[in-house]
Structures are given as structure tokens and as C-alpha cells.
Amino acid sequence: MPTSQKQAQIFNPNALNMSRVATYERLVAAPLVRVWENVLDWAHLPYLHESSFDYVELADAGDWGWRTWSNAEHTDHVELTVVDTARYVVRSYLAGQQISEIWTTLSAEAEQTAVHVEFHFPDIEPSSVEPLGSAMLALYTRLWDEDEAMMCQRHSRLKEKRDSATEIALGDEDSLLQRLRGGATILFQLKKQEYQLREQEGRLIAHSSICPHLLGPLTDADLSAGRLRCPWHGYEFDLESGKCVFPESAHCRLASVPQLMKVDDEIIARLEE
Question: What residues form DSSP beta bridges with 100?
Fold first, then answer.
């Protein structure tokens, strides 16, 4: 199904009394390919941006962009339309009536991306322009802060080279436990996979520190439920089996868990050949 908005690639297709309330500009420390990847990824909205989106449910998506429902009753929605290789527009609707139109232009700046955003709203009183503009600038600053961190981490993951060793000495057990209890994050690599050393119920365990979906971080995952949850897209994995348990349609799983052995008071992590 294409866009629901007719002539979606032109400005103000509904001929509303539009006012531009603000302009936002930013240089994002991620290449253009990562930014477009992020723009078309509607699924991160309720997880990475959970403080900004109350409800997100996919209605349709394709090369043209995506459309999501904004409430369970399916009366309100948001639609993102790709205009060309440098622009896209996001429109929001309440009960089928358009309430905003936000145009974004992207341009490559070597390994960075210049972002230019214009916010347009219909039937805005002059006294409301400044406060509404300020609110939109604050919102987009927060959203791009969160997106930039995700894009930069993913880009770094895609370029990194990892150790191919099958065994590594992690250190003295007591020292490792002290570091963990002091809040330290202990990471190590085996067979080009990255793992995190954790304490669970008084014993040391290791698990993959990278979500196999889109390389999100699992380093802050709460182990109490026996699951690891990625903050980017909400993917959840069973800690013991590595199986993805949410969403049920996913076909990814965690990397194999290394064996932890104690040799002369030192903890050795090993992955079988």
C-alpha cells in the first residue's frame, strides 16, 4: 500500500494555512548511509525513543517510507514519505486531520551528515509560534541525540575488527568480582565475538554483549528475569539458550556462550573450536 496522503511528496498537499514555527540544524557524527538507515527504521521509535512516543504500531512500510498508528484505536497516525535522495517529510494526523508537516534535508559531510529541519503547523496563532517552535526544537534535539548515539555505535561496530582467539585469561576471580561489584563493565573477545563478564547469584557468567539484530548494546541488560533486552528495538533473548523470545518473528540468536574455567585462581574464558 502506498502513502495515504495524496501528492505526499509536495509541500502542503492539503492546502492548509501553514506556518513555519522553527528551523533546526545539526551536524550528525554519522555518515549519510547510517542516517537514512535510521530514518527508515520505524521499529526503534517505541524503544530508543520511549520517552517521546506513547504508542507505535506499524500500519505499512515500503521504499516510499512508513506509516504507524499513534493510538490503539487506529484513528491517529504518523506518515514518513521519502521525497528524494536528500529529503523526507513527516506528517502527523489526528482523526484523519493533518496537524503537522516536518521537512528534513540531509547532506553528506564526509563521515558526517548535515541535517536541516523545518517545522510547519496549520492554523497557528502568532502568539503560539514561539512556544511551539521551542517545544519542537527541544523534542528534536532529544530525538537526534538518541539517534546519533545509536548510529555512531552501529557504524563503529560495522567497521571494527575483533580478536579471533578461542581462549583468553580474564584475571583473578576475586579481583574480577570486586571490579564488577564496583560497577565496572568487563568486556572481552573470542572468535570475533564480544562478550561481557557478569556476576549472577554470586557466580561469574558471560554473555554476548552485542544484539545480533542490528548490533545494539546488551551491556546494561537486567539479568534478573533470565533475559537480555536490547534498548534499540526491544529484542529479548533467553540468557541460557540464546534464543530470541521477542519478537516471535525474529530469526536471530545470541552468539555461543564461552566456558569459564578457574585455573590457579585465574578465570579463563574459552570457546570450543
Answer: 92
Measured CA to CA in angstroms, residue 86 lies from 105, 111, 113, 117 at distances of: 6, 16, 11, 12
Helix axes 32-39, 126-159, angle to 10 degrees: 120
- Distance between CA atoms of 227 and 183, rounded to whole angstroms? 20
- 142 contacts: CB under 8 Å, gap ≥ 6: 51, 52
The pLDDT mean for the chain works out to 96
CA 42 to chain centre: 9
1 has a pLDDT exceeding 70: no
The C-alpha cell at 125 is 496563532
| pLDDT surpasses 80 at 270 | yes
b/e map 19-47, b = 16+ CB within 10 Å: bebbebebebebbbebbbebbbbbbbbbb
Distance, CA of 20 to CA of 241 (rounded, Å):
52
3-class secondary structure, 36: helix
Amino acid, res. 157: R
Angle at 80 between CA 75 and CA 86, to 5 degrees: 170
